[in-house]
Each structure stands twice: as structure tokens, then as C-alpha cells.
């Protein structure tokens, strides 16, 4: 057995094509690792830097803003309520796997006493859509796309070519277990590909200033399962009595189906199970609510002060400043808009859950979802973050609204006692284990089938 | 001689089992994706039209209120899609679906479909364009990787050589035969696309021109792959090496080059963050652009100018509404600053696009994708054109509301009111997608790259012919 292992190593080493394939793989993974690692560090540095707390509203918009001398002490409660730095979604230790998602999904939300939902400056990120259409060098995506192709290039036709040239017949007469040769050959290739994958992963994580060892460990586990799955599948194709060219085409077809076809089908199925809400319908509903709110403005103001008469003082309702007079209507409007916007987060989280349950059908999908989980940018966590932001927004407003409505002065003691935002920063270990478990099971099943059928390698 | 070889190659390819199996599979895949995306496009178009009309009607039916308050209600506009977007949705998943037009500021489009999706096209869009630029070249490789090497392995190449068949005639005959067989097999797909588009959309001459150009671009693209495949088959001694190299080229062209190109653009011409972008606009409005003075200074000068113009001593004595005048003055400046920053941002996007083509040496797919998006009207240039038209419309209806406010108030009072007749008098936003000439102008670089690849592929094929040994 050891002799077979040694000979197979010599065969691999002496074929310049194998070296070329592995070198190209290593270079591309290395490039991706460097780009992803540096980009992840950049994103973390930007998130950690002092954020611009002031509202993005420009001076032209502030024509009706409260004047400084309209309030006791200069900076009133209203200005203070709009002066909170954006709330940040804490990024986890695996961000390097998935950096471009940070721009797409949005990790920063600004809250204030005004509704944040209709102004894109409060939460939307800025990116070039063309970069996303072409796809960037996200480490997990590059790994998921390239690895099967490398496996195919290294292993297709290993047996078929020897069968076609008649060498395999000779091999089968020389040994009772020709499958040992095949498995050794595949084993060496698996080891080399896994080495390149792990080395480039280590490089990526080292370059990311905020990476975590636990994230790297989880990532290595799932990438090893991924590599094992593809080598097992390649091994099964070696059993087929077809030409090496046909085997290559067949493996490529499998790659296309498992990497592109199955995720697309799952996405479609998820949409059929629960159709995606329409942004355009939401826009129409928001506008209807805005007009209604505008018509009810005076009534809502009167009702608010009926409930809080002690805060009105001697000022007639008609003489109240704009930011006070419009606040009850703005709060009611926001309470109606919020569930409309939250449904998109909920839908995304449900879609993620659906796809995760079926991720065993597409290893590439499992890798992408794992990268999302490890980076902290997965849909369920984002939905939880938005829910936490909403909750904080309610506390923020509960803290400020009485002072704003009372036109009270704002002091340092109040500033020091501001509500704090806290969001759970840890991995969802159960979900990570579930994902890895599914993928490992999928790879192990494929390997088990290959091992069960190994004696068929004796057929020539 | 070329014609004879071409006919023989055509017959051989059509009889090849691979063509039947793979061609049929890809036809089914293309048909599935295309029918789905054309249905989706039609549904999307109808929804945009309906929602656009509803949003405008909501604007029209606003209650009696101050014209500026009405302006703040805003108008939503939506970018119309061309029928060819059913073939290549391009940037649509990553650009916002809606644009809100309101006073004082210019917005970016919001709610890109990918942000609402889990996978967000991480492995590429599941669309008919993916079949066209990624899978069909693979079919060509699968059909032709052993077109010469197999003849060499079987010994028939030696026989052809002994019969005096010129290598150039052989290889170019194989190229033409392969392409003819390929297009014969693809013709049902082309027919399906044409009939579906004609049935679901009203195709204008411009649309037909676009589709023809797309077909021509695809012909050039597939010719590159076919020429390189046959040339590689002639060059390499074994089919295995040929297949390996061609698959490597295909992978590099289709998957690596676009990603590498995007990363090059991102590194060499980084975009500002959202907070940096908006903060810069806010600062420039407050502090003024170089030589313009701060907002306070500009307002003071404007007030003095207005008082002098109307020959009054104070704002309260003005026969028109000063609040509206002042606001409009500030809005003009705000628009100027926004225009400057938006132009800079979009120029940076365009620079990133140009830089991305540095990776075009890896393969022609990057160039074809850029060309295809431009022809389908789903590229950056078309998005910018739409946004500029929307911005012009925004200034029109904001100016109109300010005119009403100014004319119906006096001095510093704010008693102007508008009613439904005013809101209805605002014309609808009517945007026409530019003609195909605009698309071609925006695609000069990808056209050049694709042309260079075509020339290089044909030259390599001729070079392989010169070196062909039985």
C-alpha cells in the first residue's frame, strides 16, 4: 500500500500539467485572499472610525429647521435627537469571506426622531452596480467556483484514458485491488487542493484585521467537505464506461447544475413557497399613508397634547414650532411604514432558512451560506439587527419626544444618560454546526457510494 | 476546397451525438430562462407603468396645501426597460428600482432587487444571457476540441495531407462547418426569442436593430471560441491537452476575467463611502464651492439683490413671497452641488468600467457582456441617461411649485395654497430610452476588444494551419 502511495505521488509530481493547474489555482486564490483580506480590514477600519453623527440633510433642506435661538440653551432636544451616529451591524470574524455583501446588504443605519425609511441616506450603501454584475473577488465565491474546476482538471479521465490505451487492463492483472491506485491518486490530489485552499484561507484571514480563529476553523471544515464532495463525485465519474472527454463534459455539466442550476431552482422554489413582497407596492402604500398623515396632522397634535397636557404650557397649538407640531404625525406615520419595510427583512430571512435546509443539494450554495453566517451578514442576523434597531429607535424616541414636545432645554446630564444600543455579536453556533453537518453528510454519502462501488474499477 | 471541407464538417457535426445531447440541453435551458425572464420583464414593465401612474395620481389628488408641502410629497419615477432586457437584464438586479424626486436634494435610486435576495447573483445571474455568454461557448469547445487532434490520432489527417488538402483550407473549412452547424442548431432558440419578444412587446425598428446587433456580437464571440478551439486542436498533439487548455481559457474568460476586472477597477478607482459622499455634498452647500462663499454669505447677497430688484427696503414689503424666492435660490445652488458630486461619482463608475477591461486579455467574455448590456439598455450609460432625465424633470416640477408659492404669497408670509387643479397641471414624466446609436457610442471599448479578439483568434487559426503537421 505504501508503495502505491509513493508511486502515485511520483506520477503526480512528474506531470507538469498538474503543477500548472495547482499553480494557477494557488495564484487565483492568493489574489482573492489578498483583495478580500485588505478590503475586510478597510471595512472594519471605516466602521470603527468616528462616524458622522449629524444628519445628512443639507442646508437647503433645513430652511424650516429650528433656529438656535428658538430654544433655551441653544442645542435643543430636537437637534440632539438627530445627532446619533449610525448604528453599526457588528461584523464577525469571517468577514473576509464575503466582503462585497457588506455594501449590498448595508450594515449601518441612522436613527433619529424622524422616519428613516424614506430617506436612502440613512441606510443605503454606495457601490458601482457593474462591479457586482461582473462579480468581485470575494474569497468564498471564488473558492466555490474554482475548486470544482480544479478537481475536474486534475482528475478527469484518470482511469478512462488508461482504459482507452489498454494500460488499465494491464494494471488490473497486476493487482487484485486496482481501486487502491485510484483512491490513492485521488487522495493525493485532494490533499494538494486542500492544502492550497487552506493556505489561501489562512492568508485571507491573516490579512483581515478582525478575523477570528473560530471562523477560520469553521471555514476550513466546510471547505474540506466541499473538496471531498467534488473528489468523490470525480471518482464516481471514473467508474463510468465513457471516454475521458465525455467524462470531462459530464463533470462540467454536474458542476453547472450543482453550482448554478440547483441554487436558481431553490431560489425559485423559495419564492413559490412565499412570494417576495413588492417594493413598488410598498412605495404606493407609503405614499398613501404619508398623505393621510398630512391630513391628520393637526388632529394628531391635539390628541397628543390631550394625553400629555402638562407638556403644552401656554403656547397655542398653532404657534408651536414645525419640528414639534409635526412630530406626533411623523411618529404615527413611522409606526405604519415600519412593518411595511420589515416584511422585506423577514422574507429574506425566511428565504435564507429555506435555502439552508436544502443546501445539501448544492455544495456551492452551502459554502455561500456558510460565508454569510461566518461574516455575520446572513439574512436572519440582519433581520435581527433591524429588529434591534427598531427597538432602539423606540427607546430613543421615548427618551427624546417628551423633551422635544415640551420645548425643554437639553442639558449634559440628559446627554450622558442616552439609551445605548447593544446587539449580540456572536456566531449562531447551532446554525453553523447544522450547515457543516449537512455538507459533511453530503460529502460522506458521496464518498460512501464511491467506496461501495470501488470494486467496479476492476472491470475493463 | 474550403466549401468541401465545410460541407463535410457540417455533416459530421450534425451527426455528432454530443451536438444532439448538449445542443438540446442548452436549448431547453435557454428557452426556460428566456421565457421566464421575458415573462418577468413584461410583468415588471406592467407593474412599473401601473405604479408610476398610481404614484402620479396620488400626487394629482393631494389635498389643498402649500405648494412646497406638495412638492415634498414628491414624485416617483421608474426606468423603463427595453424588450432586449429579456435577453440580458444587465445591471437591473443591482440598480435601484425607483427614484424619488423631491425638493432640496437629488436622490440615488433605491431598492435594488439583489439586496432583497439571499444569493444576490453571487455565482452569476440565472438568465438567458448566462446561457449565451457562458454555456454556449462551452458547447463549441465540447464539439470542436478534438476536431483536428482526433483526426491526427486516427490517422485521417495524414491521409488528408497526402491528398493535398491545404491546412488553411482544412482548418477554415472546419471553422465554417462548425459555425454553420452551431447556428443551425441554435436557430430554434433565435426563432423562439424573436417570436416571444414580438408577441409580448411592440417591437420598434430600434428594437430590431438592437437585436440584430446583439446577434452579430454573439456571432463574433462564438467565432472567437470556435477559431481558438480548432486552432488549439491543430496545435496540441493530444485531445486531452487541447480540452484542458480550452477549458482553462473558457474558465478564465467567463469567470476569472470579469471578477479580476471588477477588482482592478475597485482598487485603482475606489468609490467614496455613502457617508463620505453625502457629507461632501452637505459641506459644499454649507461652505460653498470655491469662490461662491458660504450659504450665509450667498443668502445675504441674494436678499440684497432681491430688495434692490423690487425697490423695497425690507423683505416684508416684497410683492412676492420671499420665503419661496430664497428657497428656490438655495435649491438651485443645491442642485448645482449635487450635479457636481453625482457627475464625479458616475465618472468614477465609468472609469472603473474602463479599467475592468484591463482584464480583457484573459478572454472576450468581458467585452461581450459590456456590449450586450449596452445593446439591451441595461448598462451604466443608460442608467445615467435616465437619472439625468429624471433630474431635469425634478427641477421642472419643483420650479413650478415654487412659482405658485412665490406668486401667491407676499413678503415673508407663507399663506400660498395649491389645489388639485395645480397638481394635475404638472406634466407626467415621459422618458424615452435613447436609440441604438447611443448604445454603440457607449460600447466603443468593448467593441474594440471583441474585434481584437476576433482578429487574434483568426490569426491564431491561420498560424496553426501553417504549423499543422499530420
TrEMBL record, chain A:
Pfam families: DUF3526. The chain crosses the membrane at residues 20-38, 139-159, 179-204, 216-240, 247-270. Keywords: Membrane, Transmembrane, Transmembrane helix. The keyword Transmembrane helix applies. It comes from the Bacteria. This is DUF3526 domain-containing protein. It comes from Methylomonas aurea.
Automatic annotation (TrEMBL), chain B:
It comes from the Bacteria. Signal peptide: none annotated. The chain crosses the membrane at residues 20-39, 130-148, 169-193, 213-236, 243-264, 444-462. The keyword Iron does not apply. Coiled coil: none annotated. InterPro entries: DUF3526. Pfam families: ABC2_membrane_2, DUF3526. Keywords: Membrane, Transmembrane, Transmembrane helix. This is DUF3526 domain-containing protein. It comes from Methylomonas aurea. The lineage of its organism: Bacteria, Pseudomonadati, Pseudomonadota, Gammaproteobacteria, Methylococcales.
Amino acid at each position: 500500500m505504501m508503495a502505491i502511495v509513493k508511486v502515485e505521488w511520483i506520477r503526480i509530481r512528474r506531470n507538469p500539467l498538474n503543477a500548472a493547474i495547482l499553480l494557477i489555482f494557488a495564484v487565483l486564490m492568493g489574489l482573492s485572499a489578498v483583495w478580500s483580506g485588505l478590503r475586510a480590514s478597510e471595512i472594519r477600519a471605516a466602521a470603527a472610525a468616528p462616524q458622522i453623527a449629524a444628519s445628512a440633510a443639507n442646508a437647503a433642506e433645513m430652511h424650516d429647521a429650528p433656529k438656535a435661538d428658538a430654544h433655551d440653551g441653544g442645542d435643543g432636544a430636537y437637534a440632539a435627537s438627530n445627532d446619533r451616529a449610525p448604528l453599526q451591524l457588528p461584523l464577525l470574524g469571517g468577514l473576509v469571506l464575503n466582503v462585497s455583501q457588506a455594501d449590498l446588504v448595508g450594515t449601518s443605519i441612522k436613527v433619529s426622531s424622524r422616519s428613516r425609511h424614506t430617506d436612502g441616506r440613512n441606510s443605503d450603501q454606495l457601490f458601482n452596480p457593474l462591479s457586482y454584475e461582473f462579480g468581485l473577488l470575494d474569497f468564498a465565491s471564488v473558492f466555490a467556483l474554482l475548486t470544482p474546476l480544479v478537481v475536474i482538471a486534475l482528475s478527469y479521465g484518470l482511469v478512462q484514458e488508461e482504459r482507452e490505451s489498454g494500460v488499465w487492463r494491464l494494471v488490473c492483472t497486476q493487482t487484485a485491488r486496482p481501486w487502491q491506485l485510484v483512491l490513492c491518486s485521488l487522495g493525493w490530489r485532494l490533499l494538494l487542493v486542500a492544502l492550497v485552499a487552506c493556505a489561501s484561507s489562512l492568508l485571507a484571514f491573516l490579512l483581515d484585521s478582525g478575523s477570528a480563529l473560530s471562523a477560520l476553523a469553521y471555514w476550513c471544515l466546510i471547505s474540506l467537505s466541499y473538496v471531498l464532495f467534488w473528489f468523490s463525485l470525480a471518482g464516481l465519474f471514473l467508474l463510468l464506461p465513457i471516454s475521458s472527454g465525455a467524462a470531462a463534459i459530464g463533470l462540467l455539466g454536474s458542476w453547472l447544475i450543482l453550482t448554478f442550476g440547483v441554487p436558481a431552482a431553490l431560489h425559485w422554489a423559495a419564492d413559490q413557497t412565499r412570494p417576495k413582497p413588492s417594493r413598488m407596492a410598498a412605495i404606493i402604500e407609503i405614499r398613501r399613508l404619508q398623505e393621510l398623515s398630512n391630513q391628520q396632522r393637526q388632529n394628531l397634535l391635539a390628541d397628543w397634547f390631550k394625553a400629555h397636557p402638562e407638556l403644552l404650557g401656554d403656547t397655542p397649538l398653532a404657534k408651536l414650532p414645525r419640528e414639534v407640531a409635526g412630530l406626533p404625525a411623523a411618529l404615527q406615520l413611522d409606526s405604519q411604514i415600519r412593518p411595511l419595510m420589515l416584511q422585506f427583512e423577514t422574507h429574506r430571512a425566511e428565504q435564507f432558512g429555506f435555502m439552508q435546509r436544502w443546501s445539501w443539494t448544492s455544495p456551492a450554495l452551502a459554502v455561500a451560506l456558510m460565508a454569510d453566517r461566518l461574516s455575520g451578514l446572513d439574512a436572519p442576523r440582519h433581520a435581527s439587527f433591524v429588529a434591534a434597531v427598531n427597538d432602539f429607535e423606540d427607546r430613543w424616541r421615548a427618551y427624546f419626544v417628551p423633551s422635544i414636545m415640551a420645548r425643554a432645554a437639553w442639558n449634559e446630564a440628559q446627554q450622558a444618560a442616552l439609551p445605548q444600543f447593544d446587539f449580540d455579536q456572536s456566531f449562531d453556533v447551532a446554525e453553523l454546526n447544522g450547515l457543516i453537518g449537512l455538507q459533511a453528510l453530503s460529502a460522506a454519502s458521496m464518498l460512501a457510494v464511491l467506496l461501495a462501488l470501488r470494486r467496479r474499477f476492476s472491470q475493463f | 476546397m474550403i466549401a468541401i471541407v465545410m460541407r463535410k464538417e457540417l455533416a459530421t457535426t450534425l451527426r455528432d451525438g454530443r451536438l444532439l445531447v448538449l445542443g438540446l440541453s442548452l436549448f431547453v435551458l435557454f428557452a426556460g430562462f428566456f421565457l421566464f425572464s421575458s415573462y418577468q420583464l413584461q410583468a415588471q414593465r406592467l407593474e412599473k407603468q401601473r405604479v408610476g401612474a398610481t404614484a402620479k395620481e396620488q400626487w394629482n389628488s393631494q389635498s389643498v396645501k402649500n405648494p412646497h408641502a406638495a412638492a415634498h410629497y414628491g414624485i416617483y419615477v421608474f426606468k423603463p426597460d427595453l424588450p432586449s432586457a429579456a435577453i440580458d437584464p444587465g445591471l437591473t438586479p443591482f440598480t435601484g428600482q425607483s427614484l424619488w424626486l423631491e425638493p432640496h436634494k437629488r436622490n440615488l435610486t433605491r431598492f435594488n432587487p439583489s439586496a432583497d435576495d439571499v444569493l444576490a447573483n453571487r455565482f452569476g445571474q440565472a438568465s438567458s444571457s448566462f446561457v449565451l455568454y457562458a454555456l454556449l461557448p462551452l458547447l463549441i469547445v465540447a464539439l470542436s476540441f478534438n476536431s483536428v487532434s482526433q483526426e491526427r490520432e486516427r490517422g485521417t489527417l495524414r491521409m488528408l495531407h497526402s491528398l493535398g488538402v491545404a491546412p488553411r483550407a482544412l482548418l477554415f473549412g472546419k471553422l465554417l462547418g462548425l459555425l454553420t452547424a452551431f447556428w443551425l442548431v441554435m436557430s430554434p432558440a433565435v426563432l423562439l426569442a424573436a417570436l416571444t419578444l414580438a408577441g409580448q412587446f411592440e417591437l420598434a425598428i430600434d428594437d430590431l436593430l438592437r437585436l440584430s446587433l446583439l446577434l452579430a456580437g454573439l456571432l463574433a464571440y462564438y467565432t472567437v471560441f470556435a477559431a481558438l478551439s480548432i486552432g488549439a486542436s491543430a496545435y496540441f498533439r493530444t485531445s486531452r491537452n487541447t480540452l484542458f487548455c480550452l477549458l482553462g481559457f473558457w474558465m478564465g474568460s467567463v469567470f476569472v476575467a470579469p471578477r479580476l476586472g471588477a477588482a482592478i477597477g475597485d482598487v485603482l478607482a475606489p468609490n467614496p463611502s455613502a457617508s463620505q459622499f453625502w457629507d461632501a455634498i452637505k459641506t459644499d452647500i454649507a461652505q460653498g464651492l470655491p469662490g461662491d462663499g458660504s450659504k450665509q454669505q450667498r443668502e445675504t447677497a441674494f436678499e440684497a439683490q432681491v430688495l434692490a430688484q423690487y425697490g423695497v427696503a425690507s423683505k416684508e414689503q416684497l410683492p412676492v413671497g420671499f420665503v419661496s424666492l430664497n428657497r428656490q435660490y438655495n435649491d438651485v445652488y443645491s442642485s448645482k452641488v449635487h450635479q457636481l458630486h453625482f457627475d464625479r461619482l458616475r465618472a468614477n463608475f465609468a472609469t472603473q468600467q474602463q479599467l475592468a477591461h484591463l482584464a480583457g486579455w484573459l478572454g472576450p467574455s468581458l467585452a461581450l457582456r459590456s456590449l450586450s448590456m449596452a445593446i439591451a439598455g441595461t448598462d451604466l450609460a443608460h442608467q445615467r441617461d435616465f437619472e439625468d432625465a429624471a433630474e431635469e424633470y425634478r427641477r421642472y416640477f419643483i420650479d413650478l411649485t415654487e412659482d405658485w408659492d412665490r406668486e401667491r404669497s407676499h413678503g415673508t408670509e407663507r399663506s400660498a395654497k395649491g389645489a388639485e387643479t395645480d397638481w394635475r397641471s404638472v406634466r407626467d414624466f415621459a422618458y424615452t430610452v435613447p436609440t441604438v446609436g447611443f448604445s454603440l457610442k457607449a460600447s466603443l471599448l468593448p467593441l474594440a476588444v471583441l474585434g481584437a479578439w476576433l482578429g487574434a483568434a483568426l490569426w491564431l487559426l491561420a498560424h496553426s494551419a501553417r504549423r499543422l503537421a499530420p
